[in-house]
Write a structure and sequence with these properties.
Length: 249
């Protein structure tokens, strides 16, 4: 075994151990709930655009985009564009390092605010970005994405729009089939299921009606996907526990 493989084997053992550590998990959950109440995820930027994510998930996405080397990323939920710029910048780096040179990211949002669109279109990464305005579950939007995904070799999907059960389940049915073997469908905000209901007083989603309930429903009839719990055990702090779905068949 070479030095890198030996190091990774040790890491793998440590990750399993930390995933089983009840105290660390409890502390992580308590820290997560408290930080969520402070709108922690709103306080970061990627290449100058606000990205509404926890840094741990951003690092996990970097690892996935590097290892999968997608030539298409489909993202629902653009907001200020930070995650779109992040994905585009990772595709740019992949291309510089021998990955697909024509890789692009499609972003879908029901409401692309003019100032956000202008900033995304003026960004140095804009040449890798296409935006579609409309509901991610509208048949005409789905048809457009499916048609533009034709011929793409490795597709990765990120769902981060409306976080209700019905909406996420509809997104999974529409977009998960596009995910390539070995790639991922990442369902953000599954953590809603694990948090106190009173943390979402002004949202249509809550425990029992969340991205995680949608994932569980979808997986009942889709054994071609499997939850990558290794990512959860590694991150511990994540908005997507049980939401990193790997296509295994
Ligand atoms: C959490 S934000 C996305 C954050 C972004 N992915 C990031 O990491 O910076 C959710 C976005 O989903 C959009 N949205 C809500 N309902 C939607 C729908 N039905 N279809 C598409 N986008 C929707 C909202 O307009 C909002 O911009």
């Amino acid at each position: 075994m070479n030095a890198y493989d030996k190091f990774k084997a040790e890491c793998a053992e440590d990750i399993v151990a930390q995933g089983k550590d009840g105290k660390l998990k409890h502390l992580s959950g308590a820290w997560f709930d408290r930080s969520h109440a402070m709108k922690y995820s709103y306080h970061f930027e990627w290449m100058g655009r606000p990205i509404i994510q926890y840094p741990q998930d951003i690092v996990a996405m970097q690892e996935l985009i590097w290892s999968v080397k997608p030539d298409l990323i489909i993202e629902t939920g653009i907001a200020h564009g930070g995650s779109l710029i992040f994905s585009a910048s990772m595709l740019e780096l992949n291309a510089l390092c021998g990955g697909p040179s024509d890789a692009v990211v499609f972003g879908i949002d029901i409401d692309i605010r003019e100032h956000n669109r202008a900033a995304i279109e003026a960004h140095p990464m804009t040449h890798r970005i296409s935006m579609i305005q409309g509901s991610s579950v509208a048949p005409e939007v789905i048809a457009q994405v499916v048609s533009r995904a034709k011929g793409r070799r490795k597709v990765l999907v990120c769902l981060d729009s409306n976080h209700t059960h019905d909406h996420v389940l509809a997104e999974l049915k529409a977009y998960a089939p596009l995910v390539s073997l070995g790639s991922y469908c990442v369902v953000f905000d599954t953590v809603v299921e694990d948090m106190p209901a009173e943390m979402f007083p002004d949202r249509p989603w809550c425990p029992g009606n969340s991205p995680k309930t949608a994932v569980m429903e979808y997986l009942k009839t889709h054994p071609e996907f499997s939850i990558d719990y290794g990512i959860d055990d590694k991150l511990l702090l994540s908005v997507a526990p049980g939401g990193y779905l790997k296509r295994i068949a």
